[in-house]
Design a protein that fits this description.
By secondary structure, this protein is an alpha+beta fold. The chain folds into two domains: about 120 residues, 2,3-Dihydroxybiphenyl 1,2-Dioxygenase, domain 1 (Roll); about 210 residues, 2,3-Dihydroxybiphenyl 1,2-Dioxygenase, domain 1 (Roll). Strands 9, 10, 11, 12, 13, 14, 15, 16, 17, 18 and 19 form an eleven-stranded mixed β-sheet that branches. Strands 2-3-4-1-5-8-7-6 form an eight-stranded mixed β-sheet, covered by helices on one side. The protein is globular, with a radius of gyration of 19 Å. The protein starts with about 20 loop residues before the first strand and ends with a strand. The N terminus is likely disordered. The structure holds fe (ii) ion. The site of fe (ii) ion has 6 residues, from β9, β13 and β16. Fe (ii) ion (FE2) binds next to β9, β13 and β16.
Length: about 350
């Protein structure tokens, strides 16, 4: 990639930093919900998540393809917020590396014994440089395999967690941190001035983590994979049938970025989730980056449908290592919502419409 200050650059190798932990994939998230019974009705009864385990103040949920204990922990608490974002690492050695790595970055770090998070082995929990709480784990319980229990499937028939989308005030800084952890870059939204959003991966899909420029740290949404577009549509039909259509925030539609078929829903606490299907393989070592112009109305919705303003403004607060809600920092760069060609701005005939461009990473 040529030196270009408008585009994120690979992390500068710092010889002082110890080896990075080998992250395999995004694996689970923790959401604090203010009414666990209400959250259970939404996530389990309507969306069809599988309950792996249940406690008086917590639910451990997974999709039908997930072979480890959970993809989502719903924990009852006084304030709706996002807790730790969980990443699987390859081996116990990577937990030792994680401790050294985050300490070298100056991040507060904890080592939690096996079972401290139900269903998982030992965990390294850190406040990452972007202000998010992350859990790294190397082993997990394997509950009953449900991939072919078609008789159990309900709701959106969610298969697994696919990605985290996080709001950050400085997208190139977020890119730099995750590139330093060995994440590949699949797609961006940008112009000649700056990068507004970026998608990065460890597993061989479009992303494990994406950055949306905005006040942060905040969790924009959790992305869950479904196998079929009709699962997305069926979920919308179910919500409509029950007069719960207000939970549908945006979509359904086809993303330009990632090519995925999607819908965004809000849970009873306002936490945003995406049901997402049909993105693509990114495993080749020379996988080319797809760069979308911020002026292309198709980048966020390939059919040019409106992006809802709340989709840009709203996101979940995140917790720190002590369980307190983290303060946020305002966006430190140009805002996509004001310069981009969205449904509510694309009516501007002066906005040129440009297609995506291929560029080497
Ligand atoms: Fe997403």
């Amino acid at each position: 990639m040529p030196a270009d200050p408008a585009r994120p650059q690979p992390a500068q190798l710092n010889p002082v930093l110890p080896p990075v932990p080998d992250i395999v994939r995004s694996a689970y998230a923790t959401l604090v919900v203010t009414d666990l019974a209400e959250a259970r009705r939404f996530w389990v009864d309507l969306l069809g998540f599988v309950v792996t385990a249940e406690e008086p103040a917590a639910l451990y949920l997974r999709g039908y393809d997930e072979l480890t204990h959970h993809n989502l922990i719903l924990r009852a608490g006084p304030v709706a917020a996002a807790g730790a974002l969980g990443f699987r690492v390859r081996s116990p050695l990577d937990l030792d590396r994680a401790v050294d790595y985050y300490k070298a970055l100056g991040c507060r770090t904890q080592r939690l014994p096996a079972g401290a998070v139900r269903g998982l082995g030992e965990i390294v929990r850190a406040e990452d440089p972007l202000g998010f709480l992350v859990d790294l784990f190397a082993s997990a319980e394997h509950p009953e395999r449900l991939q072919q229990r078609y008789d159990l499937r309900r709701g959106a028939e969610v298969a697994r967690l696919d990605h985290f989308n996080i709001c950050v005030p400085d997208v190139p800084r977020a890119y730099d941190y995750y590139a330093g952890l060995g994440f590949g870059l699949s797609e961006t939204i940008e112009d000649e001035r700056c990068v507004y959003a970026a998608w990065m991966y460890r597993k061989q899909t479009v992303h494990d983590v994406a950055f949306t420029g905005g006040a942060g740290p905040r969790l924009h949404h959790l992305g869950f994979f479904a196998h079929e577009a009709h699962s997305v549509l069926r979920m919308c039909d179910i919500l409509g049938s029950l007069s719960l259509e207000a939970h549908i925030e945006r979509g359904p539609g086809r993303h330009g970025v990632s090519n995925a078929f999607y819908v965004y829903l809000r849970d009873p606490d306002g936490h945003r989730m995406e049901i997402y299907t049909s993105d693509y393989y990114t495993g080749d070592p020379d996988h080319p980056v797809l760069r979308w112009s911020v002026l292309d109305p198709r980048r966020r919705d390939f059919w040019g449908n409106a992006v809802i303003p709340s989709w840009y403004s709203d996101a979940s607060a995140v917790l720190d290592l002590d369980g307190a809600v983290r303060p946020v920092t305002d966006l430190a760069q140009a805002a996509e919502v004001t310069v981009g060609a969205d449904g509510f701005t694309a009516k501007n005939p002066a906005a040129p419409q440009q297609g995506p461009q291929q560029a080497p990473r």
